[in-house]
Amino acid sequence: MAKITAVTVHGGHNPQGKIACGASDYIDESKEDRIITKKVVKLLKKNGIKAYNCTVNNGTSQNDVLRKICAKCNSKKRDVDISVHFNFFIHKSKKDSVTTGTEVIVRNKDGVRGDLGKGVCNQISKIGFTNRGVKIDTNLYFLNHTNKPAILIEVCFVSDPDDASLYLKHKDDIAKAIVQAILNYNKAQ
Fold first, then answer.
1. pTM of the predicted model as reported, rounded to 2 decimal places
2. Using CA atoms, how far apart are residues 160 and 33, in angstroms rounded to an integer?
3. 25 DSSP 8-state letter
C-alpha cells in the first residue's frame, strides 16, 4: 500500500449515558474515546494528513451506532479507518503495578492492518502499557463493513486501576503514539 494520506477516526460508541455507550469503571470509555479521537485528528492534520472525525452521537441502538459509523467512514475519501475503544475485563479492585494493556483488533493482519496495528501497539506500549499485540476478530461489524482497511484500537482497560492511572497521566502521549505509528508506517513505504 502507498502512504497513508487520509484517515477516519472515531470513538466507537454513543456518548456517555445513552444507549450503546461504552464500558465504564475507573474511566468512562465513551468520554475518553472522544478525547483521544479529537487529539488524534488534530495531530494528524498538523502533520499534513487529512483526518475526519466520524464519531456518532445519536445512535438509537448498538447496530444503529455501528451502521452510522461505517456510513460516515465510507463517505470519506481515505486510506484507513481507525476506531478508538477502551477495553473491559474483570474489575481489578486494587493496583498491582502491572497494566492489563493495549491491543489492536483487525479482520486480518495483511498489509496496512497488520503493520499499522503492530506499530500502534508498539508506540502505546512505550508509555508503559503491556503490549497485548494485534489480534484477529472476523466478527466485528466495524471491521467488516468499512470499504477500506480498518483497525480497532483498545487503548487500555477501564477495569484496571493501573491502566486508568497511566492513561489519565498520558492522554496526549497516547494520541501522539497513534499518530507516530501512522507517520512511521509512511516512512517505511
1. 0.97
2. 16
3. S
Per-residue burial over 40-57, b if 16 or more Cβ lie within 10 Å, else e, is: bbebbeeeebbbbebbbe
Adjacency order of strands within the sheet including 80-87: 50-53, 6-11, 80-87, 150-157, 102-106, 131-136
pLDDT at 90: 86
In the beta sheet, which residues pair with residue 106?
136
CA distance 72 to 74: 6
For β-strands 50-53 and 6-11, DSSP reports them as: parallel
* pLDDT tens digit sequence for 93-125: 999 999 999 999 999 999 999 999 999 999 999
Task: Indicate the angle between helix axes 171-188 and 161-169, nearest 10 degrees.
Answer: 80
The sign of the dihedral angle between the CA atoms of 60, 27, 162, 85 is positive
In 3-state terms, what secondary structure has residue 101? Answer: coil
What dihedral angle (degrees, nearest 10) is formed by the CA atoms of 125, 130, 23, 41?
Answer: 10
The CA angle 94-178-123, to the nearest 5 degrees, is 65
Low-confidence ranges of the chain (pLDDT < 70): 1
Alpha-helix residue ranges (DSSP H) falling in the chain:
29-46, 62-74, 111-125, 141-145, 161-169, 171-188
